Structure formats: C-alpha cells, structure tokens
Amino acid sequence: xxxxxxxxxxxxRVIRTAEGYHAFVPAPLPPRIDYTPELVLTLSRADxxxxxxxxxxxxxxxxxxxxxxxxxREAVLSSRIEGTQAGLSDILLDxxxxxxxxVDAADIREVRNYITALEYGMKRLRTLPLSLRLVRELHERxxxxxxxxxATPGEFRRSQNWIGPAGSTPAxxxxxxxxxxxxxxxxxxxxxxxxxxxxxxxxxxxxxxxxHFEAIHPFLDGNGRIGRLLITLFLMERERLAQPLLYxxxxxxxxxxxxxxxxxxxxxxxxxxxxxxxxxxxxxxTARDAVERANRxxxxxxxxxxxxxxxxxxxxxxxxxxxxxYITVARATEILGVSxxxxxxAVGHLQAAGMLKEVSGRKWGQLYLAAPxxxxxxxxx
Length: 381
Hints:
Number of domains: 2
Helix content: 55-70%
Strand order of the largest sheet: 3-5-4
Structural class: mainly alpha
CATH architecture of the largest domain: Orthogonal Bundle
Largest sheet: 3 strands, antiparallel
Order of helices and strands: EEHHHHHHHHHHHHEHHEEH
C-alpha cells in the first residue's frame, strides 16, 4: 500500500505497523457531506424509487411470492462477486435434491449460507437492533462449514488482512485495513454511528455505513457479503422497506470496478460525493428493477390463475412454483397433502396450461420446470 496516495486526513490516517507495512485507519463517521445539486437530485430519485418499492411490498397479498425468489437471486449474485460459480438453477435444484450439478458443492453451500444469514438477519431484527453483535451472528451463519470456516466464523479478526491481487502481501497490497487494535476502535465508532437517528437522510447514512464497514474489513473473509447484507437490513430496520425486496448485488456486479475504485477514492481522497452518487444511483436503478420484476411476476401469476381457475389443486400448486420453479410429483404430493394420482393430475394441468415442462428426460422421478417463472426472476428489467 502506497501511503502517498492517501491524501485526505478527514478520511483517515495511514500508520506504519511494527512489521513495517502501512495500514489505513478510517476516521469516525460522519464526514462533512457536500450536498451538491447533483447529489440532491440523485438522492431524491433514489428516495422516490425506494418509496415506490416499499409501497408495493405493503400492497402484495402474499409477499413471500416475491421475497423468496428475490432473496435467492441476491444470494447468487452477491456470492458470485466473491468468485462462486453457482447459478440460481443450481441452488433451486439443490433444494429439490433433484440431480447433480456441474457446480462445486462448496459453491452451492456458500450461496445457501448467504440465504440462511439473510433470513436469520430479518428475523433477528425483531429482537436485536443492527449492531456488532448482530454482525458477528450473521458472519457465523455465512461462513459455517465453507472455505472461510478457517477464518473464525462469527469472530472479528485477530490478525491482519489486506486487499490485492493473488500473491500480494501487506507490503504490496492495494489496501490494508486497520490492524486489530485500531480495528476494534473503528468498529466501536461505526456502531455508534449506526445507532444515530435524524442526522442524515437514511439513504445517505446507509451509503456511509456500507463504505465504512468495507474500509474496516473486520473479518478475514466474508466482508463484502456481510456489507451487502447490511444495506437491506439497515433499510428494513429504518422502516424504509416494508419487505426485503431491495438488493444491490446485481448493480454492483454490473459496475464492479467502479464500486472498488470509488470505495478506494473515499480512503485516498475523501471522495464521499462520488461514492454516494454511485450508491444512490444503484438504489434508484435497483428499486425500479425490483418493481418491474415484481410486476412481471404478479402478472404471470394472475395470467395462469385465470387459465387454471377451474383447477383448484393446480392453482394451489402454482403459488409454490414461485418459491421454487422446479417440482416433482412427489414434491407436489407433499405440498398439496393429497395422493400421488391427484398430485400428478395437478402437475398435468400445469403442463397443459404451458407453465410446466418436463426437463429430466427420465421415465421415473420426472422433474418439471416452470420456465416462465424462472425467466421472470432471472431476466433483467
């Protein structure tokens, strides 16, 4: 890490460690924000888009039809940023235990852990505010039994980490977060800011919170995924989201280099305006995408409910397909609580309506896919 690149004392300070390398210690939040006309306009647009999405979440009669596919898509995309190869179909098939995937089982486990951590965080917010304790609990579930298991799941790091290309060291890395003693001080200040109310607009505070968490980098592994989880949980805690429908991983993946560059510019130049412009644009675009995706899914549901209105078992099974578009007759039997022939008949009605297609090619234990639903979940808005 080149200490001469860090030119803004307001952003933090560079220290030289006893081992001889340099590390960055971020200054406590909040910084002074320059509310330029451009930033105010972007904040207004992000606020409006988020409000529309939150309102949609309140109007949906069965929000789980959207929450489940949105959460799985986010888990796949957030994990992909960190190098996993598992796709949405891999995760859905794994849930069904319906055939081998070409993707490494460890990658699937990482994505499954992300879903577990997200679901846990949403439930835990009912009894515990966003805090360092909750962050550790999320990390414990995220890293359990995966490659980062060696990185002490649920515990803040006790050694130095760094960000850089493969083979880099603290001396050659692009960025070196604060050593453990300074890290704990920074985390305490971060948590204090997390609990502040009415000092900044919620979206500004959310953007600052996320940037600062990534600058502190308190875990040996999993920092990026935890930081992205915190965005959704923060907005839910502030009651800016009625349902967990906003996830920024798709936007970050599409603009990945800008994401890393702008985070680094906060540290080196104190460019909070550039970072916030990026973050708020991401919120606005992602919220609009989520609304369009929700409209596609609800329209699809209504279209097939009308086609199947005289087939009550098929209608009941239709809703289950929004949680997992893959299904077998055995699974349909379990969902409907009926006999195998009755479940097979419901599957047949969905096939005839154009919702289900047999995709395994097997004579026994056939696997069906609701391709219209999977396409609506995966398709870019």
